[in-house]
């Protein structure tokens, strides 16, 4: 359990610095001249199937309620009944709020199966249908079909180490409309 909590803490710190994917191109020009440190970034609207960020961190706990209380008291996470929802801004659309959920699950839940690991990472993706097609072509184990909910599309896959991975193509505007407390 100490290992999975350590992994969770490391992942949370990583998420704080990673945020959402920004595809940029350096402005051509005199950027290669000595002493010229000015670079202009041009944001593109990339729809290439792939991961755009972390959407969630899920892990097993002997007592999820106690763990959530500990994180709230000691680290300041704002909790709801499922865990903590982190709020961040989309790097390409700064007015858009994006979300990441941190959630402990009671040991014995089948949600992380068939993985034998004590955690699962949810990755935010774009073009989930194109991504699933690409994964299938690459021989990746796809555990289910794309499930559609008001707040996004989901599918589960396995990586070579036997980790179950959740892919989520979010509709963040719905989550924003739903409201609720978040960790900022």
Would you kindly provide a written description of the structure presented here, covering whatever features stand out?
This protein has 4 helices and 10 strands; from the N terminus they run H-E-E-E-H-E-E-E-H-E-E-E-E-H. Strand 4 (84-89) and strand 5 (97-106) form a beta hairpin. With 184 residues, the chain is α+β, with helices and mostly antiparallel strands. It has one domain (2-178): 2,3-Dihydroxybiphenyl 1,2-Dioxygenase, domain 1 (Roll). The strands form 2 sheets. Strands 3, 4, 5, 6, 7, 8, 9 and 10 form an 8-stranded mixed sheet that branches. A two-stranded antiparallel sheet has the order 1-2. It has helices spanning 2-18, 64-75, 128-137, 172-178, and strands spanning 24-26, 41-43, 50-61, 84-89, 97-106, 119-126, 141-142, 147-149, 152-158, 164-170. Mean pLDDT is 81; it is low at 1-33. The chain is 25% helix and 33% strand.
Descriptive keywords:
single chain; 184 residues; alpha+beta; 2,3-Dihydroxybiphenyl 1,2-Dioxygenase, domain 1; 8-stranded mixed β-sheet; two-stranded antiparallel sheet; 4 helices; disordered N terminus
Instruction: Report the biggest beta sheet as strand number plus sense, adding barrel if it closes.
Output: 8 strands, mixed
Distance between the termini: 26 Å
**CATH architectural arrangement:** Roll
Spans of 5+ residues with little confidence (pLDDT < 50)?
A: 1-33
The portion of residues forming beta strands comes to 25-35%
Radius of gyration: 18 Å
Structural class by secondary-structure content: alpha+beta
The geometry reads as flat
Q: What's the rounded overall pLDDT mean? A: 81
* Tally of helical runs: 4
What is the number of independent domains?
Answer: 1
CATH topology: 2,3-Dihydroxybiphenyl 1,2-Dioxygenase, domain 1
